[in-house]
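Board notes, transcribed. Complex of a protein with iron/sulfur cluster.
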Amino acid sequence: MWQRPVGSWEEATDLPAPLRAQLGDAFPLARLTCDAAQRSSDGTEKFLWKLADGEAIESVLIPEKTRRTLCISSQVGCALGCVFCATGRMGFRRNLSAGEIAGQVREAMRRDPAAQPTNVVFMGMGEPLLNWDAVDTALTILNHPDGLGIGARHITVSTVGILPHLARLAQRPEQFRLAVSLHAPTAELRRELMPIEKKYSLPEVLQALTQFRRRVTLEYVLIGGKNDALAQADELAKLARPLGALVNLLPLHPGGAPDLTPSDRPRMLAFERRLKSHGVEAVLRRSRGLDISAACGQLRVELEARRKVRPEEHARVE
Ligand code: SAH
Ligand code: SF4
């Protein structure tokens, strides 16, 4: 299923025909069908997968030198409603099964066996730690030598910090990487951007990270005039330094938030320099796939809007 990902048991011709038939009955292969695929001028490729019940999710493949990172979804939609996020605006539809989560990697491999993802990040649609049981199993499938065999250090779970499940992830013996979406240096501002702050607050999340025995990444989307002042970089440095955390600075993807403006480039560079001046390791990411709406949730939102206008034009974008 995972190492030579056939499209159906029928294709597994090295197995005896009666066994293939039995497998087909007992374990029908759940497929994700590609409803749309778009390639950006920067090489980023985005897939919209249709699930068996008609729901749709997204994955984005980001090539970078020798790496190919696949960004996968863990839920259909998301209940957490962060103000800058297209998936958040969609609301929550349902959890994905472990097969549907790992299946995104399987299907991407099937499309281009030569371009197997080297890294997987849970940065597509949904909050992975609100679907812990399925994500727990999917992590095993992704990492296990009998599964996809992707090294734990090449698999990153991104979360807003759902405390009970953060502890469960920390308990796993494999060295999975953790990225925590901070986006604000104070609880007050974070509450404005991320409603989950009311339930799991910034100080509690930071406290939980001190228990995590591995180095964590803090994610920070730069929003013009909101969280990009140099004084806020100073505050952020005070949080990141004691943790020895890496700060990932993300340009705001404008499609996710029509009312917010991305920080301008000089401000982003100044923010990054300021963090570094405090001895914090910081990386300003490039915004990838701008021309194909490659931020989480955007392709689905965009296609649905288009379909509402002209339903006869569902044609595959491939
Ligand atoms: N729910 C998880 C994982 C999915 S979102 C989480 O929030 O961490 C993955 C990352 O994309 C998060 O850091 C999120 O804040 C970021 N993101 C969401 N909308 C964005 C946008 N419009 N521009 C840039 N980054 C965005
Ligand atoms: Fe959900 Fe993450 Fe989007 Fe927030 S940023 S709404 S947690 S997917």
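The two ends are 25 Å apart (CA to CA). Confidence is low (pLDDT under 50) at residues 309-318.
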